[in-house]
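User: structure tokens for this one?
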Amino acid sequence: MAAILSIRDLRKMYDGGFEALKGVSLDIEEGEILALLGPNGAGKTTLISTVCGITTATSGSVSVGGFDNVSQFRAARALIGLVPQEITLEPFTKVLDTVTFSRGLFGKPANAELIGSILRKLSLWEKRDSRIMDLSGGMKRRVLIAKALAHEPRILFLDEPTAGVDVELRKDMWEIVRELKAGGVTIILTTHYIEEAEAIADRVGVITGGELLLVEAKEQLMARMGQKQLEVQLATPVEAVPEALSQHNLQLVNGGSGLLYTYDTRAERTGITTLLNDVAQAGLVLSDVQTRESSLEDIFVGLVSAGGDSKGPAQGDAA
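Assistant:
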């Protein structure tokens, strides 16, 4: 499938020499959901702002649906919907008016049925005649989402769309995201709720220090970098791992009442059978055995703390 968004060697340097983006390259396919993860100050918002034309790049290029986002700005921007982190709304405007106005800004004809559908999906219909200043923070966030959807964009950027909002809005938001994806809309989101990215994203990108560490299909990333752990719970705690078990690289946990064994599911042998036999031969009595595997959050934390030592495919790869 062709890329609807192509970013090539994008760099952004501010006065004073701070480089917020350091040669980011990325292709995003039409109809996919990409979760862009990174710590605060990693460059996520700068990247989104540059693609959307809010910030001017120092060098590099961005193509949106085949349109250059500088020389063909209007055509490129018309394909994009943006839900920013900050709530910037005209306080005295009514909900219905501000969402309708956003559609008109992009030259779209009036469509009361569409606007009404968006407001209903976001539980804003009953508030359509309310002024923005009279809404709660969560309702204002809903208005931002409605404004971003009003002109029927082909690409939707969600920059921390559910940060600090209620569970109901988060549920509504992800349901809308699934509907948009089913309709062919491409979605790029940043979120601090990594479990949400794990549940909804097709691919995951990790950015830190202005550099894109990797972009990879979620399932492939978790299979490649995820680990499984086996915790052997002992009937009687021990003060140290017995010498006879030293070759298994075990960790003593839970005050000596558990042995933690990490293994790779891709390996030809996990070593579990040998481990359990050796534990029995060492005279230890098991009370229970439990397994768990890495989450996307575990992998993300490991990548960021390692500074990108474990890179995936080249930044421009679309798969």
